[in-house]
Amino acid sequence: MLDRGAMGALGLAAMLCLAASGARAFDDAQYPNLKGQWIGVRGTAGGGQPSFDPIKRWGTTQDAPLTGEYEALFKANLVDQREGGQGTNATSTCLAPGMPMVMNAHSPMEIIILPEVTYIRVDHIRDTHRRIFTDGRDWPAEIEPSFDGYSIGQWIDTKGDGRYDLLEVETRGFKGPRSYDASGLPLHRDNKSVFKERIYLDRANPNLFHDDVTVIDDGLTRPWTVHKTYRRNTNPRPIWVEYVCAEGQQLVHIGNEGYMLSADGYLMPTRKNQAPPDLKYFKQTQK
Amino acid sequence: MLYRNAIGAVSLGLALCAPIAGARALDESKYPDFAGQWKRPPGIGNQFDTSKGQGRAQQVPLTPEYQAVFEAGLADQALGGQGNDPTYTCIPDGMPRVMNVIFPMEIIVTPNTTYMLIEYLTQQRRIYTDGRTLPEDFEPSFTGYSIGKWIDADANRRYQTLEVETRLLKGPRTYDPSGAPLHPDNQSVVQERIYLDKANHDILHDDITTVDHALTRPWTVNKRYVRVPNPIWVESSCSEGNPHVRIDGQSYMMSADGHLMPAKKGQKAPDLRYFNEPKK
Asked: Which residues touch A285 (CB under 8 Å, ≥6 apart)?
């Protein structure tokens, strides 16, 4: 009788417990604390635009293991950029950078963890709502290609202490054009890239997190792995500045040519002796 | 003795329960279930007041000065121009137009911030619910600075309504593509009450009141959104294939074969004064 009373009381406690935690309670202590504002850490060789491998300067010094064909494409792009063009850097038209360039974190990054989805938000160019699905789903039979791709993740408890400390992510289903950084280092145009990431907090400094990114792409001779690090802004209420690429955009693309807008609003060349756009659809009023 | 054992058992049970709730546990059941994908109801276009038609039918309570600006914009649009609508160059809608939700919206509720991710132009709103006040100095933005407060109107320890006030905006902004303008002083204040429909939890309401110097009075509209089960999120990149080009304040179009062409009948070609004259 005594045991039955105690059992009943335990049952009541369990019910109270369920009501207190709620059927939809989410224990975020189970996940690493990735809250706040994250800023990409650049290596000492860094300078200019953020590069894909942050410990190396952008451009040819990235030592990307490109195939011969893509190395030639990259070099032609650098020549075009030197002459004032934009080469294969598609983001000059405010196109979304997509994967993996988005992880260069040109602007600060925010990570929101929910049990079923981890969101990565980067304000640069405003085209990034990376959703990493962690609800156990499988790859869909058909993926609508996108610049950010379709990401499936899995939380791992590597230490077996009941807390997740590693997010493994695989991303597929792309469209392009995409490059690794603004130097125009290209990904293959077949858009069959696959990215594998390992995202985790630094063990010694919880205000650093790491993203080990491995790229498998037909424009590479072998998988390319880089180690990216981000530093947390310790301000508990960081300032998020809206970044609108199209606002004040000075580059104008007409056909396959890039032009600039002058300070007084007129179209002007970006390269020496660049021909003006063909105005064949306008009635000729001058002469 | 029996009674003491039972109390002890309840205490033990509750103690075991504590780690489950966790120090940082988010009790989602305290908040209304805003999860999922939200779309405009069927038949609703890109108008701000969804109970009325588009354009003049919106009957925006504009001051005479801004009614004239609106009419001039409509006249330009009738000729093929873009009028007052700034979004053709991929400038974001901003507040309150972003809540027209042209492409689907996702709402993420966390204790300190509620996020609204809107696929169209990839806009994002952060609504701070951590008790902060409006900052004295903040960079204006198209979506503004939003402070929210959760309300438990039924006093049942569950929030039903998110009240939001948004300020610190920048422009140009319009209510919809017809170009009904907000005042360029950008001192608009947008107040919202966001809540689930009591009869149907797959319908979300947003009662929006706009206070703006281009209006003769605060303007309130009730917007509704419908939850989509098993959503697919389709990326929207405005710049991709955008056929509009703006040069020297004029809008032009790109032809299918990649050449510049007029958007309006009789429109002059852009001035090419900075190019070398190849002929003569």
From this structure: B268, B269
